[in-house]
Structures are given as structure tokens and as C-alpha cells.
Write a structure and sequence with these properties.
single chain; alpha/beta; D-Maltodextrin-Binding Protein, domain 2; 2 domains; five-stranded mixed β-sheet; 16 helices; about 45% helix
């Protein structure tokens, strides 16, 4: 009788466990590859630190896949599910005639994120002063370099004739190259630009983001086949991003800095605050994930100016806004 009672109790406990398990929903695993680790992507880190992905039932594995070419390789090979990278990379893949094109579905930043850094302060900076100097630029064909060249041309400077343009240094090594003495001016992302300012190594004198206008600079993208197969996961992901974008837009610089600083533990708090302030003031953070056609065309104008566009890439072929539009409508 005692054995029967114990057996019944064991069965009852097992049944309770099964019922409890039925009430739990396993989080959907999603692998994200970011092109670099930058405060420029503050809404993404806010979505992580404030639990917005978790609220959507997502378990996000964030990897830094340094460089646009490496990020796109990770997307195409299936190493990551979604990439955060410049939209130009999806156009390059499309130009090669991909059977499974990479589709842009949610915009995170809407301006270039780089700054012109000089070795000395220049309160009366004039773009003409760049003629004849050595300029340490970004990787050829990448959006930072193309936005930089677009800005220089707008101010009457031919970067390949009017200056000594260096663009053969690996993305991750550009700051250290400048710090060691290479170049008179350099094009840098944050927080490196502010770190250099604090150390006296360099001084921000202009913003390429302000100069080159709005464009889908950094966008979440995935293979078309992934979007079709995982619509529910992608929608939840986009919802979390929209929620984070609204949060960043309405919160103070200090609050945003506090939310993202766990992802920049080697950067001083005052630097993080300075960078967030700089990006908020110039409107770099998109306030919703929708990729506008006008911005898409501006992107291609910049690519065309740099000689990197074989033919115009159709907006309706490489942009899918329905996840973003639903997120904007539903997220309050």
C-alpha cells in the first residue's frame, strides 16, 4: 500500500511538472551579427539591457562581426540569422545576382556615424584646408568611406586628386594607425573620436553625418528565405527594436548612457554621455524602423558618386517594410 501511495505521488508530481512546463514558452533563439561595437547602435543595446527582446520571448545571441564584408559573409553562410550592417552590402550581393537576396527590414541609424578628426583643434575649420593633406579614410566600398567622399566632393574636393587618401588599413586598426602618426586627419566612429579628444590625440572638427544627409546607414537584414520561414520571430525582433527606438528618443542623454554602458565597460562614463549626446543632437538614431524610399535613393546617389554602383537597386526588391510598419503601428 505504501509503495502504491509513493508511486501515485510520483505520478502526481510528474503531472504537475508537465502542466507547469506547458505554461512556459521557450524563448526563440536568434543570432545577430553587428558590424562593429559602437554607441552609434544605442537602441540595440537598450533593447537588450531593458529586456525588450526578452519581453518578446526572444533569446538574442549578439556577435560582433567586425567589418561589412565579414558581416555579410556571416549572413550568407548562416553563421548569423540577422545582420546589422550598412544597406550597401545588400546591394553588392544583389548586383552579383544572388538567388536568395539579402533583404533590409528594419533601420537602426539614419545618418553616417563618423566624424572628421584633426590632430589640433580648429575653431575656424574650412573644408578647403583639407587640400594637400594626408587623409586616413575608411575601407573602399564601405558606407563610411563613400559618405566621406560624397561630403568632400560636395565641398569641391576630389579625394583622389586633392589629397593623399589612405584607405588600405583594416577597419579595426584605423584609430591606432592615426594615434601612431599616420595621416593629418582621420575619419572615425564614436566612441573612438571622443576618446581621442579626451586624450588630446585628436579633435572632432566636423560631422560626416550632418553633411551627407539621411540614409539607411545601418540596417537589420536577413536572407529572404529566413524572413519567409521565421516571420513571427522577425516581427517580435522588430517590435523590440521599435520599442527601444521610442525609449531612446524620449529619454534623457544620461538615461540612455546608463542603459548602454554595460556594453562599453572599458569606456569612461563621461565619454559614453558625450557620444550619446552627439548622436542624439544630430538625429542619428532612427525613431522607427521604416526604411524610407527617399533615404534609399540618397544611399544610392552616394554609392554612385563613389563609383561603386553598377546599376540602381530597386527599392521594392531589397526592402521589406511590413515588419517595421506593423511594429510602428502596434508598439505604443
Amino acid at each position: 500500500m505504501k509503495r502504491i501511495t509513493i508511486a501515485l505521488l510520483a505520478l502526481l508530481l510528474a503531472a504537475v511538472g508537465m502542466l507547469a512546463g506547458c505554461g512556459k514558452k521557450d524563448a526563440s533563439k536568434i543570432r545577430i551579427g553587428e558590424v562593429t561595437r559602437s554607441i552609434f547602435y544605442a537602441p540595440q543595446y537598450v533593447a537588450l539591457s531593458q529586456g525588450f527582446f526578452k519581453d518578446e520571448g526572444l533569446d538574442v545571441d549578439l556577435q560582433t562581426t567586425a567589418g561589412g564584408d565579414k558581416t555579410m559573409t556571416a549572413i550568407l553562410s548562416g553563421t548569423v540569422d540577422i545582420g546589422l550592417v550598412g544597406s550597401e552590402t545588400s546591394i553588392y550581393v544583389y548586383q552579383q545576382g544572388a538567388d536568395d537576396p539579402v533583404i533590409n527590414f528594419a533601420q537602426l541609424t539614419q545618418t553616417d556615424g563618423t566624424f572628421l578628426v584633426a590632430r589640433k583643434p580648429d575653431q575656424n575649420f574650412n573644408w578647403d584646408s583639407l587640400k594637400g593633406i594626408t587623409f586616413l579614410g575608411q575601407r573602399k566600398g564601405g558606407m563610411p568611406q563613400m559618405a566621406g567622399e560624397f561630403t568632400l566632393k560636395k565641398h569641391g574636393i576630389d579625394p583622389h586628386k586633392d589629397m593623399n587618401l589612405i584607405q588600405n588599413i583594416e577597419f579595426a586598426n584605423i584609430p591606432s594607425a592615426f594615434a601612431s602618426g599616420t595621416g593629418d586627419y582621420v575619419q572615425l566612429f564614436e566612441p573612438q573620436a571622443s576618446v581621442f579628444e579626451k586624450a588630446g590625440t585628436g579633435h572632432v572638427i566636423a560631422s560626416f553625418g550632418k553633411e551627407s544627409g539621411h540614409l539607411p546607414y545601418t540596417v537589420y537584414m536577413a536572407k529572404q528565405s529566413y524572413l519567409k520561414k521565421h516571420k513571427d520571430v522577425v516581427q517580435k525582433f522588430t517590435n523590440a527594436i521599435q520599442r527601444a527606438q521610442k525609449w531612446v528618443d524620449t529619454k534623457s542623454v544620461e538615461e540612455v548612457a546608463n542603459a548602454v554602458i554595460p556594453y562599453f565597460n572599458k569606456v569612461d562614463k563621461d565619454i559614453v554621455v558625450s557620444v550619446v549626446k552627439r548622436y542624439k543632437e544630430q538625429g542619428s538614431f532612427a525613431t522607427d524602423p521604416i526604411i524610407d524610399e527617399q533615404e534609399w535613393n540618397n544611399l544610392q546617389d552616394i554609392m554612385d558618386s563613389a563609383g561603386e554602383l553598377k546599376a540602381r537597386a530597386p527599392y521594392d526588391k531589397l526592402v521589406d517594410n511590413h515588419f517595421a510598419e506593423k511594429a510602428k503601428a502596434d508598439v505604443k
